[in-house]
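Re: the multi-chain job from yesterday

Posting the exact lines I submitted so nobody has to dig through the queue logs.
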Amino acid sequence: MSEEICIKALRIAESLGAQQAECYYYKEKATKAIIRKGEIKRYESVKDEGIAIRLIVNKSLGFYYTTNLRDLEKAVLEAYKLAKAGVPDPNFVSLAPKKPYHRVNKIYDKRIEEISQEEVSEFLNEVIKRDYDQRIKSINSELSLSLYEEAIANSLGIQASEKATLASFSIELSASEGNKYSGSFEASYSRFLKDLEISPLIDKAHSFAINGLNKKMINSGEYSIYLDPWASLYIIAIALDNALNADMVQRKRSFLSEDLNKQIANYNLTVVDDALMEGAVGSSSFDGEGVPSQRNVLIEKGILKNFMYDVYTANKENKESTGNAVRNGFRSLPSISSRNLVFDKGKRKSEDIMLEFKRGIYVRSTFDTPNVITGEFSGMINEGFYIENGEIKHALIQAGLAISLRDLFKNIVELSNDARWVYNNYIPYIYVEKAKIAGK
Amino acid sequence: MEFQDFLERGLKLGAEFIEIRYMKSKDSSIQYTDGTLRSFSANKDEGLAIRIFYDGAWGFSSTSSLDSESVLNSIEQAYKIARISSNYIKEKYKIKDFKSNKANVSMKFKINFDDISYDEKINLVKYLDNSIRSFDNRIKSNTVRYNESQDEILIVNSFGTEVLKKEIYVSVSALAISLESGKRGRGYVARGGTGGYELLKEFNVEEIGILSAKKAIEQLYATSAKAGSYTCVVDPILVGVFAHEGIGHPSEADSIVDKNSVLEGKLGEKIANDNVTIIDNPLLEKCFGSFDYDDEGFPARPRYIIKNGILNEYLHNMETSSILNLENNAAARADSYFNPPLVRMSNIYFDKGDASFEEMLEDIELGIYAKGFEYGYVMPNNGQFTFKCESGYLIEKGELTKPLRDLSISGVILETLKNIDLVGKDLEIKTIGHCYKERQWVRVGDGGPHLRVKGIVVGGVE
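And the result, structure tokens for all chains:
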């Protein structure tokens, strides 16, 4: 049914005289529960449906989306008018060619489609009825379940659709004792409800929030650092997502623009973008342009092997798209992004690695991200701890971290053999030799 | 069926309060990158949001299908989820019996976007794009954008409110990337406001492009600041961010109710020097955060959050005003029909004082002039803030000397407020900005005069 709407739109586009056209359909049913101060504050139920058209006339592309599916003809006509009024793009070659798909398994959970509101409430009891330390002053949490369907068709013969589910849970705790404050958070994303972590995450955030109350300033200087997967998300994964985006690279906006096939990191860093991983939140059979999903090695043993392409940037270099055109529903154009960024694990457990720290900083989280143009990172440590002789001594207050990503990549001493998912990134604990810490 | 029939249906089911918010938006945007038209987009987005209050609980549901059956389903769904969640709520409250409001308002504009041809708009963006790259050959890449939006919002509720409002916005932005012998720089400038296409004739488009290019080039020669504590002179853009992040968010009464704000329990207390007044004003002309009625249908007014150093009021919606029993000052805003209204700011700024820029620099032996804003955040529970600045200068012996890059400033809000020793007589409000909260983006404005603040922690790579 959804593919038929797309095909119908293509027929209209053809009759108008479009050179090429693509229609993307998206439908979502989502339920969200919002918890504030440890009580259910509100439920939200959202039904959303719409189509997005990309249409080409004389190498000029028009994009139009609408929620009004009854008036398909008008939507295609609007896209046509935009394309017609636009200026030809000499770099435009074609939309995505047709190719066979590998179906990805385990991205749809029937239970999420069928769950009742009452059952959702039972899940929330894990958050609400739990015992919290008296020093925990605020408990904010969200549970969200979504069922969505996407379909795509283009005038080169692509025609595909897929149904998937997504569950997410997040918790934010803040603690205070006298004039000391601290806070922590956790989140989990999964395709299946049974895989959604709730209680263990509350435990984790709870213990970080309480331990974070014992805060002290440390002396400025060089320290070894030990990055939690949450810290690596902001310092490394988000940076790679941008710096390895072929559009950023082609426009020389990435600090890694000139580094293909060069050693950019220690041999122990291998990063793969795998859009075909069973059950992973970034997996799907096809990307936002209908290109088959694939597994791409980005960094292998420290050598930069590839960038992430969509059809447009790939055509510019006479290459094939790597399936990295990502859509965020029907309201925006597809854009280049990683699918499931998977870091190779090391040999030893994270706890054992930490035991060897004579004097170092465990960086649990930061909200700063590197400047992708220069590759420099300088930011505040949101949650961090001072480690001495393998033991956590106290939390940090007002500590800054500064390091260039080139130095960070080269100074990775070890990665742990335990890794975890943070959003669509699978990251181990990472031990880095020497970073500048600003304190007293 | 009519909206009144839908409201009736909700009340008949047992709702204590029901609100229907219809929203239709029409947007268009043009993006040029490196001399090529990269996207030319438009859309029509239309849908309904239903909110029902039942026995201390809210149910929210939204739909983009507008046939009677879908709307009735949404009403039933909102009622059902409100009922279920009321079983889990211990601390219950009632929504106050608010007065109804009736209005039909539109933002002022002279030229309708639809009366300007596609060609003219494309040419404007092309001209902006060209003004950046032709300025200097060290500019290696750039992106420019044009956005226009026309929203129509109707709010009806069981108090009898019927507010129809039209909101019209336009913006242009320019990003320039410079490159010279391996060093890179970035410059970004955005202009915009509420109103029609006439605003673009008021801006000097070429100047926007050149300014972004100049910023990017200056960064090539900037050095990092040495980390430490300094007396800082802060420019109006960064002052606006401080007002927004540092005072605005903690004054949103939902964070007071949730016990997640440093301003909780401090109403009437002196929290800043006498020279500090902070206003959140939705009635400013042409500013991005302006509105006549909020998204719950209440008439807007200026809010004096801090008056001569004293915490004067919080920002409220129906819910927080009911829970805390304080006057509702119409701060409810939603970014779309698929999200409920939250307590949000409009245009927040520090009021002006009497110091000149020269006076501020005069007796600084070694300090920092911090300018512009890239991103930032505040920890709500302890008020610790970090702002990444766009650029800056070293101040040596009362003079601006070296340009700085990768500059960030941080501190604790309530301490910083007391360290403001001079407030400038210049007042500049940035008319265009966006604020993110609980997955919703709303348009805002912010600003202020230059401020001089002691003991700001400056971070740098060195």
